[in-house]
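Notes from the 1:1 (GR / supervisor)

We went over the backlog. Supervisor wanted to see one worked example end to end before approving the batch request, so GR pasted a single chain during the call. The sequence is below; no edits were made to it. Supervisor asked that the structure be written out right there so they could see what the output format looks like.
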Amino acid sequence: MAPSPPSTRKPAGKVDSLAAAHARFARAALLIYLGAIVVGISLLVVALVTDKAHEEDQTRERLLLETDVRAHSLGQHLGLLVEELRRLGLRSEVDLLDHNLAPEKSLLALSHEKSTFFNLGVAILNPKGTVLWTEPRDFLLDGTSFAAEKWFAGVRYSQSLRIVPVQPDRADAVLYVVSPIVRGGEFAGALLGGVDLARGEPLSAAPQVVGGDVLTVLATQEGAVVYPPRPPAFAAEGTWKALFTKGSVEPFTEIAVLGGHNTVVAASPVSGTDLILLTVALRKPLFAPARNRLETRITLGLLLAATPLVLLVALLRRSLDLFRRSEQDAVREERLALLGEAANSIAHEVKNALNGLSMGLDLVVRRDERPEAAARRERVLNELRNEIHRLSDFTTQLMTFSKGIELRRARVDLVDFIPKVTSLHRDAAVELGADIDLDMPADPAWVNADPTLLHAVIGNLTGNALDAATGPGGSKEPRVEVMLATRGGVAEIRVRDNGPGVSRTMLPRLFEPFQTEKANGVGIGLALARKIALAHRGDLVLEAPPPSPTKTPIPGAPSAPPPAKRGATFLLTLPLETA
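Structure output shown during the call:
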């Protein structure tokens, strides 16, 4: 019989390798780009956050600067009031020691009847702090006494001008400017000017800070609110009071929670007074421009980074679609090649069988009356029967493989079943000079299996092992071992030979159909055997050979002979029958 043609089919994993390579390339490209995006966006965010913090610091500085300017302007305005009272106090008409108020009344009527300095009015106080005269007359009631006020005592003893808030935290914003009247080095009384800051211009103009939802507050150094006329609700909170616990009064900005809102407070002292001007701004609208710029820049950065990513994903998807079409074409071509190879193998096997049958038939029908001819015809008839049997087995295997496994289970004792199957190969082993050794346990090993299919699997493994041990590259003492063991509810059947083993090129496709290295094989036996094993919820694998022991060579000693051939060991596992 002519040998089967060698397989020319491409490796089965070629398409899978291409798919894996494409997937790795796509993942690597995306990971590299995403890594670059992460680094770039991180640097951008760090830069933008730093820039935002700088802008917020600049906004706070501008708020403090504007507060300081307004405090200075208020101080100048109050300074003008002080100078006006000082000027009046130095007039010769103002002399309370002569007990004649006519000159003083005339002076006040002429200069402050409609005063542009003091929008409430001007009053004359005697040395005891009692109101003697006011202009206009409804400013203060005659006889009103300020003797109990601390500020009057301070003016009396220091003989210096004072600017004092009048009852802070009430519903007005009144300041008294008090100038002592000194004659002959003695305190002779005082001039008192009243101004309501709520009516004037110094505090009416709102700050011009961008995004400023702000409130202007004038307070004492203890935190008592002078302006606005109705103190804000947060003036009673401890956080507000804590702003005035600083040792020295210097301009400052601070972030504080007032009235349940995050605020930025800028404070600056009013020169010449004991007052502090504060600007309270809500933090969110104050820093909104900086935050909006940050969000806009980050959004633009993300869009710029995402645009190439979208293009890259689109290109990879297009490449993937192209690859899938190529993969489908490759699979289609591979199937056609496999079908052609299978058809070629089947035709080759059938042709070999038919050639053998034809030659044997010619010998049988040829007339020859010699005695030796009868013996030859008998031998040829036996060969014809074997060839017909082989062809029948081949077609049976082919039909079983193509239509699927249909199990007809029965209770089988492997200890009794395996020797019966291997005994069918005894005659062939004797002719080939090989031994078949059995290693069976003493106790039965029951499985629930299809006896016919199980017979085919064990017979195929035994026949393959016998062919390997006695074929080209086999051992001088060919041997086949069939061993049965049970472990963990599984029956383990090992079929081992001492032949040349399975080549490296054959290992990846060992259990694929129509793959064989035999000269007269078709390559369907192992594929069918594994399919039958899996149908029984078992498996069929090629066990890895044990590692070769390594010895350190001794210098000068003769080289050791090459290690003996290890052959191949196939392991068939089947689930044991449960009780």
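Supervisor's comment: The CA atoms of residues 202 and 312 lie 63 Å apart.
Batch request approved.
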